[in-house]
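Supplementary Methods S3. Input chains for the assembly prediction are listed below.
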Amino acid sequence: MNSKDRFLKIKERLGDCPDLKFRNIRIGKKNSVVFFLESTSNGSTISQFIIDDINDKLEKGIFCDFFDAVKNEIANSSLTTMEDDNAIPFYLSSGFTIIFIDDEKQFILLETKADLDRGVATSESEPSLRGPKDSFTENYAKNIGLIRKRIKDENLWFKELKIGRRTRTKVAISYIKDIADEKIVKDVKKRLQKIDIDGILESGNLRSYLLDKDAAFPQMQSTERPDTVCQALLDGKIIIMVENTPFTLIIPTVFVDYIHTPEDYYQKPLNVSFTRILKICAFFITIFTPAIYIGVVTFNQTVVPDELLISLAVQREGVPFPTAFEIILLMMVFEILRESDIRMPTNSGTTMSIVGALVLGQAAVDAGIVSPIAVIVVAITSICSLIFTDIDFINGIRLWRLLFIFAASFLGLIGVLLAALLLLFKLCDLKSYGTDFLSPFAPLNIKDQKDSLILFPLNKIFKRPSYITDKNKRRQS
Amino acid sequence: MKKLLIILLIIPFLMTGCWNYSELNTVAIVTGFSVDYKNDEYEVSMLIANSKKNESSSKEGESQTTVYSGTGKTLSDAIKEIERKSPKSIYIGHLSVVVISEDVAKKGILEMSDLLLRSAESRKKFYFLQARDTSAKDILSLVMPLESFPSHGIAALLKTTSEAQAITTTVPYSYFITDVLKPGVNPVLPTVEIIGNADEGRKSSSLETTKIKTYLKVSDLAIFKDDKFINYAENDDSQMINILNGNTNSLLTTIDNDNLSIGFNLTALKSDTKLIDPANIKIKVTGKADIREINNKINLEESKTVDEIQNILNKNLKGRLKDTLDTVQHQYKTDVFGYGNMIYKKYPKLWKQLENNWDDTYFPKINVSIETDIKIVSTGSLKQTIKEVK
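Predicted structure tokens for the full assembly:
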């Protein structure tokens, strides 16, 4: 078969794309075509290690069988041969250089990927004070490298899948074989294999395929820090890495994982325990404060101490809106402020804070549109919710807070109580791959309390969390 | 089916239409309440704490107060009249002080006490007191220095005087009513009087001088027989009644002996009352004393001297307690100590016979022996007296 014709067919198939470059090389009586996508390949690698090599060998005249010679003599770490022309577009997009040779059914694939990624940088969404600063990047191989670098164990296994009819995105399930629960691995794999969609762009795309029911609180932690991922692997968890995104999914995830940070294990345990308790308090404050305020001010005034009630009443004097509406209004303004702050380029950030703090805070109170205490309530609520790093968790809290506010504005403190019961029921009901979301508190496991709310010194924690895996329980002797 | 069930469960909550809903700026928070009795009608006054924002004040929480009054045959009639005057709805959940006038007390308290007990909104833990030589309304409307909430001023005044000086006793309303209803106990009430001109004291401008001309002063206890007021205790009697009842644990007192007078601060006062038999009662008062002031030469370094002073103190206190007891037993003839209640608990059958004539016949006859055991624990920062050193 004529290599030139074969190439033209491919070219036509790709829509005569402008970044497809080729070169004809004639060797003896045989023609060959070397072609690649300029946009995904590294031009200098191709000139230096492929074209140069072939020319070199041509001059020396050592080619008897051209195909074998190219296959064996060209210096490239990932050289393969193939027959199926249908696979060519995938490999071209992945940055391979392909060589067609006349009358040769097989063609040669040489990896000449261009470096389209940024380097390993510090994490912006999960910054740390103490501990490694590196974070995952969009480069899949580099990400795996960052894990391998940390866990040099033969039992660290990666199972790779390609998902997406068009994107052909690589997805890896990774776990430590003799620790992790392989039932979960199988389950995850089965679920991923079932996916038949045109494209997967981010690990978040997979979320709904991996869960049976969606709850406000995320049953899957996502992180861009390699040390968080490695800690999870060592605990017996399973991670899912997706090509072209720094965010990695961790399953199973329980409530306390959102209270913990990887830094916890690098700092003094006593101080860490304090921080964790603080975070739990912040969790309750951020959910309950606006609801309790509404309940107390509009229904159950009796529970407020005398001086405070009079002070509240005087502050509310002249405010035109009902308390519940006032709070919802302010909460909404804050949420809008936060959302626009995330999307806004950093250099306009100062304008934002001036507008937010001065106009909404000070001026609204002075104008008598909202009462100062409502601003305080919303401010406390917002600050406390920002103590958590996982955006899904923060948004879950936001949803529940809204429910609490509604319950309180209809039924007062009784409504708050009912909503709290509902929250408790829902959290108890929630499961992440067979693990109860509230473990190790519900069901209570005394032994696991060494690393839940209170952190014991690391040399006292002998076992892995029992709610994650029951294999290979001992972590240290 | 499941969805229908959930909807059915949610609907009753939403159908209540915000039951009990009231915005804070639509209620008038009543912190003080007074009852007068004039021309066969009750006059009720209410002190409303959140009348308006004080514009000149930099502090947000500060507020001015307003007093509304209404009259009627019953308390609720009077309150109805107030509600017609007040632009905001009356809320008595945070009532902290209730003042009654002498006339109301003489008429009998049970007649007016029902409303405040029955109201679900009221917390029943407010201070209950009586106005002396003035109307209860005047006490309520007096502007007080050092306090931004006038009604709290009265409560704070009662609290400090009962804690430090044993002159009054703080009586939460529910305790008072229990005392009225208990067999064999008669209640006492703290009283407050106005020194100066009451009309002057209502103006907030009266606070602009450093020397306040009109002010409230805690006065002697009002002694009750059943639910009716009979007399005021003398100053020393108030303190002694409080000690005997165990209502106070500290007392400031001065003891004169020859030309020596010593000021003591008695603390940790405890009175232990024992019913030996229906006719004999034994009381033991224990406590600690600090010396606050000595005006003459005396050597405290010798333990003998301290012992001597201690003896004098104990004897003096015992005498005063005895005097008070005699006065109450024979002059007022009302059992404010609750001895009858002790008999009721220990000898219920006997009590049935005594019950009807207890205060007038049997209580004065009861034989009470008092023992005092006060120990001087501290002589202060000085070992000797200043006069001695000179």
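Confidence is low (pLDDT under 50) at residues 56-62 of chain B. The first strand of chain B starts at residue 27 and ends at 38.
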